[in-house]
Amino acid sequence: MVGTFGMIAAIPGSPPGMSVFVDGMIESLSMKRESFSMAYMLGTITAGLAAPLAGSMIDRYGARIVACISFLGLGMVLIVTGFVDRIHQWGLPGLPDHWYAFILVCCCFAGIRLIGVGFAMTTCRSMVFKWFEGRRGMAATINGVVLSLGFSSAPVLLNGVVIHVGWQFTWITLGVVFILIMLPLAYGFYRDSPEACGVRVEQGGRDSFSRNRIPVYRQMTGREAIRTYTFWIFTAALALNALIGTGVSFHMVAIGEQSGLSRSEAVAIFLPVAAFHIATTLSFGLFAEKIRMKYGVILMISAQLLALYGIANVGHDYWRWLFIVGSGVGWGSFGILINVPWPRFFGRLYLGAVNGWVTGATVVTSALGPFLFGLSSGSLGSFFPAMVVCAVLCPVVIALAIFADNPQHKYASSSITAGGEYDGHS
Fold first, then answer.
1. Does the predicted TM-score (pTM) go above 0.85?
2. Are 386 and 40 in contact (CB under 8 A)?
3. Phi-psi region of 363 (alpha: psi -120 to 50; beta: other; left: phi over 0)
4. What are all long-range contacts of 260-268, with beta carbons under 8 Å and residues at least 24 apart?
């Protein structure tokens, strides 16, 4: 639970969390929406490119050390972000104000995303799923439900704080919370793996599914994992989900305004999404150890395709609920698929490095989402063209996912010959 709680480090820099800060920061810094989106994109891409390094550091130095450094660094960056408008007022000789604002926002977002997602989120995810084997799906379910509640309620809670005390003090408060609460929590409770504590990893029950599930015959390094077809199809699906989800949620207030919704009505959409998010996480998580993961990929992308149809007409009740259901199911599936497949496909030994590559890819595409939607709105006057582009990509990923099977299949033949029980589950 402490590892799951630590994953809230990603909320401040996530598009749902950021959505309540966007308009205030744009106004205070006198920036255009497309420039602000570009700054977010470049800062996030910087974080994504560094994420594989974070994964390697986790495997080398352990979750406790990396988490403590991450929470301290994140807190400091959040506090600086709260003062970014005052720093902008000081100016920089020889540099136009709009370029100075762009650089400041880009640096702040790079720090928040790099430390909050690239390091802290990856550390917590890797640590949690090194402790489970047989009940990994159940662990992912609990993890997903807690994160769903956190990420979906964050915009509403943060919006209330921003309205009452301003976006600047809200950033500062978040920074203090990470330094005074999360840092001591990580130091006191984070441990790298069961083996590091002298205990055996959890194995779960011995039902027919656990006996027939393909074992891990080869522990793959991060570089070996990225050479497999399955890794890239799963990562592409997660990345597309992130592209769509972040693009929509980052601009949710503006998308709602184009469809006739008020700011409060647009932000309130995140709450019912959470209900379907949680229901999907519970259902998918309970069966995650009994089904092939590629079917989850197909479910996730199909749901996001429906969400795109819904958000395009979000001003009407029917289409709004189509978005709510599609987005909730998509993100509920995402919470399982970003955690469960990797130790099953590649083993636990180098899980930090594998998660680092996955995080890097999803972080980069999550940066492209807000920029793509912001560019569509700024240049073409509507978010609809960006929605069409995303909708075209969905069937392509679904078709490719059909052939994305467990890479351990090719190492199973010798074990089956020796009397193994594997019958095809993955």
1. no
2. no
3. alpha
4. 260/315, 261/314, 261/315, 264/159, 267/19, 267/20, 267/155, 267/156, 267/159, 268/156
Q: Is residue 121 part of a domain?
A: yes
Structure tokens at 327: 């987005």
Domain annotation covers residue 417: no
pLDDT tens, position by position, for the chain (426 residues)?
A: 666 677 776 677 676 677 788 888 898 888 887 788 788 788 878 878 877 887 788 778 887 888 899 889 999 999 999 999 899 888 788 788 888 989 999 899 888 888 887 788 778 777 776 766 666 667 777 777 777 777 767 777 888 888 889 899 999 999 999 999 889 988 887 776 666 666 665 555 555 444 446 677 788 888 888 999 999 999 999 999 999 988 898 788 888 888 888 888 888 888 888 889 888 988 887 887 788 899 999 999 999 999 999 999 888 888 999 999 999 999 889 988 988 888 888 887 888 888 888 888 888 887 788 888 888 888 888 899 999 999 999 999 999 999 998 888 777 665 544 444 444 445
Report which of 140, 106, 123 is spatially closest to residue 51, judged by C-alpha positions. 123
Q: Which domain holds residue 333?
A: 2-194+209-407
Indicate the burial class of 418 (C-beta count within 10 angstroms; 0-12, 13-18, 19 or more): exposed
Whether 151 is in a domain gets the answer yes
The CA dihedral of 239, 104, 49, 70, to the nearest 10 degrees, is -100
CATH number at 158 reads 1.20.1250.20
- Single out the residue of 142, 166, 334, 178 nearest to residue 246, CA to CA: 334
In a domain, 422, yes or no: no
Give the total number of structural domains in the chain. 1
Chain CA centroid to CA 178, Å: 19
